[in-house]
Amino acid sequence: MASGALCIWAANASFKPLSFIDALFTATSATCVTGLIVVDTGRDLSFVSQWIVLLLIQLGGIGVMTFTTALPLLAGQRIGLRQRMLMKGGLGMETPSGAVRLLMQVLRLTVFSEALGALFLFFAFLQGNCPLRATQLAVFHTVSAFCNAGFSLFSDSLESFAATWAVPGIVMTLIVAGGLGFPFYAEAASSLRTRRKLSPYSKLVMLVTLVLIASGALLFSVTEWNNAFKGLSPGLKVWNALFCAITPRTAGFDTISVNALSSASVLLTVLLMIMGASSGSTGGGMKVTTIGVLFATMWSHLRGREDAILWGRAIPHTVLIRSISVVLIYLLTLFFGSFILLLIEPFPFRCLVFEVVSALGTVGLSTGITGDLSSAGKLVLIALMFWGRVGLLTFMYSLLKKDHKGSVSYPEATFIVG
After folding, report:
1. Measured distance between the N- and C-terminal CA atoms of the chain, rounded to whole angstroms
2. Which end of the chain has less Cβ packing within 10 Å, N or C?
3. How far is residue 184's CA from residue 292's CA, in Å, rounded to a whole number?
4. Interatomic CA distance for residues 376 and 127, integer angstroms
């Protein structure tokens, strides 16, 4: 991120000089595929700086370690166990077994998805733009959407396309495609070849994703039908409600300004930002599988079962403990991040908490105060973006994990909860 910041700072020096803190913020937001901006990407960054941002988004989307490991593989070299161990976390794998095979599938999927998305967006942007400008817009927004980054070359994000179908539709498709997760695609491809059923993990990813999109679109339609969506046709109202349901799950684009939304919709947006995308995807948040595991556990408990069951399979106790740990660490980070910003910034509670949730979830939606934050406030958001993208539990494990396995067992104690 520091090298990216230096590149942006140097490339923009002769165009529109940036402070180093703004260059660092931009580089961090791009590498962490967040989309929060302190300068207008299309207006305040030079052409070279924009492409540096795009490169950082691509690196952040597939994972820096994944990309650097791919280079020697493409050159025909072998990689060692240490590189496989470092790479597995970015791909959402428990073990390094099959990491190289999944890596090559990730690269093929990324190239195919982005090439197809850029082709469709090119024709969508060609209306009203010359072919060269349409190509730039198509490539930039395709990579940004598939990597769930949310950076846009338009000053109002995609708000000028609220009354259209093509651009929001293509962007929504790319966001969902990038947010499903590379392990899901690897299993889906294997399932098609071998005609085996999908695992409970992949079923859970699809189920929770569909539920969040459908319920989110319904709720946004109800809350904004005669408010933010006023003036649009019924079909476009539903279309924008669908966009509002998809983009908070770590993408960061918007066709309707956050400031135009009702308080109920802002609360719903915050909830979706916290939930996020899938494990091993280009998105952030607590992850849909974490939410799914906890809801399945709650449902099993309410039905009097000791074990949480999904599709005839028990959820391992270690997975449940990890899910609870993710939620607690995430919520604690949200609290302390919000508390610090509320101490040092003069903006309203609603705006500052929204910024913290957006940064930690690597979303990129904003109420418009990001560029007006103090240097200290920007550094807080930089730390939150990095923390959210690296992975809360992965980071904690790298610092605290020790081998506690042994022959010693401790007597159980009874605790009254609830």
Report:
1. 44
2. C
3. 15
4. 43
- Packing angle of the helix pair 47-62, 20-31 (nearest 10 deg): 40
Cα–Cα distance list, 139 to 111, 121, 125, 132, 380 (Å): 12, 8, 11, 11, 31
For the chain, how many residues are written? 418
pLDDT one-digit tens code per residue, 240-284: 999 999 999 888 899 999 999 999 999 999 999 999 988 777 788
Burial of 74 from C-beta contacts in 10 A (0-12 / 13-18 / 19+): exposed
Could you say which DSSP state residue 196 is in?
P
Query: Cα separation of 58 and 146, whole Å?
Result: 9
> Which pLDDT band holds residue 15 (cuts at 50, 70, 90)?
very high
Q: Is 313 helix (H, G, I), strand (E, B) or coil?
A: strand
How far apart are the C-alpha atoms of 75 and 57, rounded to whole Å? 23
Q: How far apart are alpha carbons 69 and 74 in whole angstroms?
A: 9
Find tokens 């309203």 and name the residue. 348
416 CB burial (10 A radius; 0-12, 13-18, 19+) = exposed
> What's the pLDDT score for residue 71?
47
Q: Whose structure tokens read 């607690």?
A: 328
Is residue 274 within 8 A of residue 361, CB to CB? The reply is yes
pLDDT in tens, 281-292: 778 889 999 999
**Residue located via tokens 């079923």:** 203
Residues 6 or more apart whose Cβ sits within 8 Å of residue 145:
117, 170, 171, 174, 175, 178, 251, 253
Which pLDDT score, from 0 to 100, does residue 38 have?
96
Q: Record the tokens describing residue 93, joined without a space.
A: 């794998």
Has residue 96 got a pLDDT over 70?
Answer: no
Helix, coil or strand: residue 13? coil
Render pLDDT for 182-209 as a digit per residue (tens, 0 to 9).
Answer: 788 888 888 888 888 888 999 999 999 9
Query: Which residues sit opposite 309 in a β-bridge?
Result: 314
Separation of CA 276 from chain center: 6
Backbone angles phi, psi at 313, to 5 degrees: -125, 140
3-state helix, strand, coil in the chain (%, to 5): 65, 0, 35
Burial class (CB in 10 A: 0-12, 13-18, 19+), 64: middle
State which H helix or E strand residue 310 sits in. strand 309-310
